[in-house]
Design goal:
119 residues, mainly alpha, two-stranded antiparallel sheet, 11% strand
Length: 119
Amino acid sequence: MPPIRRPRYFDKRKLHYLDAKPTKVLGEIERAGKNAPIQGANSDWLKIALVLIYEHIQRYKLPVKLRLTIHDQVISTTIKRFAEDWARVQAKLMEEAGSYIIKSIPVKAETQITECWIK
């Protein structure tokens, strides 16, 4: 599954506003243009990871619930005695999802077991 391609368009009309500074507007467009592929790849990776995790939970009827995603985090809950096993499985699935997007280097996922969500 290749990364999802999405064009990114920038409004060059901002260059013609009365108070526009062309170098500032072009700088904003350039920064956004460099950031868009990174953010897009991260978005693709997270969506693939969620699908793999969800399918794994359903296939094996695991006592796990997907709760929340925040940027590049997938937050799930499970019973205490299964937490360590699930942490390893979730990390493996997230790394597998990353390998669909980034083929040149291995992707490493970290997991953390907590009683409540932390930043």
